[in-house]
Design a protein that fits this description.
Length: 371
């Protein structure tokens, strides 16, 4: 239960798996090296690695895999023939959606992001028709076409609040909690079971009104708030409630995020000490640096400049001050400040990078090669 209710004490630590070539067992082994930010069962913190671990354990306990269990126990009985669990299967689909992201006001297609290693956390590719079958199973009390697949007791346990998520910023959403794989709430006085998802170029939300026997699925092949705003607008219509300006709120939130990003960059630059230089030649910083949880970070010297690579994330390193460099990457709107450490012997044994809010900078140790 602790694995699937986001109360284990670990913050996201998403760059452990995002773009990594590590296998699922290797990622499970890496967990011991990650710093928590809360005690067990005290704080809600969304955690993809715990869902990956839960799926991995399910496979180990049944001498199978999460993918096989999902296929045999859910997808095949429900007839969800258009649903898959890997990017390779999605690419082979003639009608598979292509992911898109908005950058600097322009929408462009981006590559698929493989989630194979952390698949239990969100690698399912599906269609509206297939997702309707999934909702019918839940709205049918665990039965689908007269066949029981989930016990009513298990469903009640899934929908029961297990961890408080705190107060939502929207007054219409109250009693916000996390069940077993579902977000549970009261929406304008109506019980709602819902969950959202997202990865590069895709966003989605599945929502059910169990007492009314209704539900919605909104899928989008872009990094937009549309699945969320459209869901609440549809619920207002289904329930006969006065409409709320959800789209206007979403636009306001987007503007606030942009302002916050600019302010974060302003504060970052205000802390810069001008007129400083690196303590070493640029090519002295190159090398492979290792962290037992986050894996390897490579620093290269190319065309008289430094570039870095974490998993499959590449970015240039621009001098900030002293031995600190700005790591410019596509995944973060404000560059990360990467700092090198100089040892007593004048060498560069480590670097530190703020990859997870709320914990100390992640320290990577230089890998010394023989010869």
């Amino acid at each position: 239960r602790d694995l699937v209710t986001h109360r284990c004490g670990l913050p996201r630590h998403d760059y452990v798996w995002y773009g990594s070539s590590a296998t699922r067992p290797q990622l499970v082994q890496a967990l011991r090296h990650l710093e928590p930010t809360a005690d067990l069962r005290t704080t809600y913190q969304y955690q993809n690695l715990m869902y990956m671990t839960a799926g991995y354990l399910a496979g180990q306990l049944t001498d199978s895999s999460w993918e096989d269990l999902l296929r045999k126990r859910i997808l095949e009985p429900l007839g969800m023939s258009a649903t898959s669990t890997s990017v390779a299967e999605l690419k082979s689909c003639a009608v598979g959606a292509r992911p898109h992201e908005s950058r600097t006001g322009k929408v462009r297609e981006v590559p698929y992001r493989s989630l194979d290693a952390v698949a239990p956390a969100g690698a399912i590719n599906s269609s509206v028709n297939d997702m309707v079958r999934w909702m019918r199973l839940h709205l049918g009390g665990g039965r689908f076409e007269a066949k029981r697949l989930i016990s009513s007791k298990s469903l009640r346990d899934m929908y029961r609040p297990h961890m408080s998520m705190g107060q939502d910023e929207n007054a219409e959403i109250q009693l916000l909690s996390y069940g077993l794989g579902w977000t549970v709430m009261s929406y304008r006085g109506h019980r709602v079971i819902t969950h959202s998802g997202g990865i590069d170029g895709f966003r989605c939300r599945t929502t059910m009104l169990p007492d009314e026997g209704a539900g919605t699925v909104v899928l989008s092949n872009s990094d937009t708030a549309l699945p969320h705003t459209l869901t609440w607008e549809i619920l207002d219509t289904l329930l006969g409630l006065k409409s709320v300006a959800w789209s206007r709120r979403a636009k306001s939130e987007s503007r606030r995020e942009q302002v916050a990003q600019r302010e974060a960059r302003r504060r970052q630059l205000a802390g810069r000490t001008s007129g400083t230089k690196p303590s070493h030649r640029l090519d002295a910083y190159k090398g492979t640096y290792h962290h037992p949880g986050y894996g390897e970070l490579e620093v290269r010297y190319e065309k008289r400049k430094l570039v870095a690579r974490l998993n499959d994330l590449d970015g240039r390193l621009k001098h900030f001050h002293y031995d600190t460099f700005e790591f410019h990457g596509r995944r973060w709107p404000t560059p990360l400040l990467l700092s090198f450490t100089t040892g007593a012997d004048g060498g560069i044994p480590q670097l530190a990078l703020p990859l997870q809010e709320g914990v100390a900078d992640i320290v990577f140790t230089r890998v010394v090669t023989e010869g």
